[in-house]
Each structure stands twice: as C-alpha cells, then as structure tokens.
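Thread: quick sanity check before group meeting

JM: Hey all, I'm pulling together slides for Thursday and realized we never actually wrote out the predicted structure for the chain we discussed last week. Dropping the sequence here so it's in one place. If anyone has concerns about the input, flag it before I start.
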Amino acid sequence: MGDRKELPEYYYENNWLEDKIAQIQEATRILRGVSFVFITDIHVPSNSMNSKYLIREVLKRTTLEDVFFGGDAVHAFGTEEECLEQAEAVIRYANDITHRFFTVHGNHDFTIRTSPKEATGFTAQWETVYDFVMRQRENDVKGVPGKCFYYLDNPVQKVRFIVLDAYECVAERDVAWGVYDSISQEQYDWLANEALNVQGYTIIVFAHPSCDREVDSYSEKMVPVANMLRALNSRSLYSCQQDGILVEADFREATSVVAAYICGHNHGDYDHTERGLLTISTTCDASYNDDPKCMRIRGNVTEQAFDVFTIDTREKRISTVRVGAGANRSWRYG
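JM (edit): ok, ran it. Output follows.
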C-alpha cells in the first residue's frame, strides 16, 4: 500500500491505486523493450500536484526508472515572480520523484503574460531555460552544450530516446509569451547526422508540439522533423528548405525504426499515423477540461493524468496505462 500521509484517501477507495499498480506491473512485464512514465503540461498552479506521489508509488512498486516530462511547467498568466516560483516548484517536484527525470522544453518554459486583458509579461532568458531543462541531467544524456535537445540510450534493449527542442527562439525578458516555434540548422543537422545515426535501434522521439496535421496543436516548424523520421522508416533520402534552413538526411542504409513521436501541448489524447510515423499526444496533468475524454474534478482521482508507456520491441506494440483521468491505449508500429 502507498503512504497514506501523502496521497489523499480517495486514491485508495475501491482499490483504485492497487488496481492501477497491478495493471502497470502486468503491462510492463515484457522480454524486449522499455517502459517509462510520460507526464506533460503540469502548469503550476493549476494542478493538485498529487501526480508526484503517484509517480513515486509507481516507481517504488514496479521496475520502472525513467520519467519524461513533456514541457509546460508554468501557468499562462501571472507575474515574473510567480513564473519563477512555479518553475522552482517543478524543479522540487522532479527532484522529489527521481534523478531519472528528463525534461522537454515547452512553449511556456518560461514565459508568462500579466493577465488575459494585459499584453505585458515576462520571458526568462536562455540561461534560466537551460538550467531548468538540462543542468541536472546533462551528465546522463548526449546533447550539445548550451542547447535543450539531447538523446539517451538503453544499449541492452537497443532503444534510443530523442528529446527535441521546438522552441529555440526566446524573446527579451519584457515580452509576454516570448517563446516561439523555431528549430535551428544546428538541431536539424544534429538530428540527421547524430541522433538518428544509429543502427538497429528502436527510437522514441519526444517534443512538446505535434508534428502531424491530424493531431491538435500541430506546429509547421516540425514538418521537416516529421518527414525526416518518415524517411528513416522508409529507408529513403530527404531534403527540404524551410526559413532559409537546409534539411538533408540519407537513410537508405538505415536499420533503425522510429516507433513513435510523443508530445503534449494540446491538452488532449490524440493519435495519428501518416506515412509510417505514429504520433501520440497525451492530455495535460493540470486540472484543465480541454479534452472531453479526460474531464477533471479536483478532489478525486481524475484530478491528475499521466501515462506509463510500454514499448514492446519484439511485438512492435505500444501500450499505455493511464493514471488519472482518461483511458488506457495501445498501438502497433512498424
């Protein structure tokens, strides 16, 4: 049983937590592949923050180790002080869970607008962003100094996790919502020539926005990324120019496969496969009711929402156990 001093009693009613743990234990019992927690769009303070204790219970009672956070730590509206306090709250949140907590740069990390009626605001500068996203994990991953994109490997299972940064453009500090869709030439080159340049691996890609037009909150900047991943899966060449950037990749001799592109941002559960690339989005952990499939009520088990993903590389199957609002899901890939 979990620590009742931390989690509210309603998580134990009708064996709810015990049943979730049992589902996770069963789903993650595979011979080939990996399992991990994926949580996104925490948006402090619009969050009961009980997901921290739930994830800790999952890690304590299963063989899971890795947690991936899909971005958006802070609220959309408030002061500079509140923005930075909320960012610090998520740092404490992550540190209370595990040292294996890997972060994606979101469009609200970290920028805030004073109010819905005022256009003024604050945008943290790049040193603060890098400190939050990368500093504590930079020795555990392979990236580029000063950047927020990276990868990490499970060499036993031959699985590579790639984390992309869709928001390399940060405005001056007095700009509201001043984190903009942008991917540099350096990141495209790194993705084509280093991150995807591995043989015989199953690859999972994380980013904050969707790369698929059929999945809500799609970003046009992610089109070359999506097409590059599709080119890898189809063993083909890819070349394009966008915003003065040349994107080139040659995967004709590749032996790896991209199993899925996983994102948040849209606060909803969506999925779509286009030309061999599966895109999966997961609803937010914040107590928002943007997705009718995942309605939230504070003070019961629907107040949080995150997934335990299992990638079965032998069966080429992806499954999730939803903890909180929403349902379990599954897909085939390859």
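AS: nice. The radius of gyration is 19 Å. The mean pLDDT is 96.
JM: adding both to the slides.
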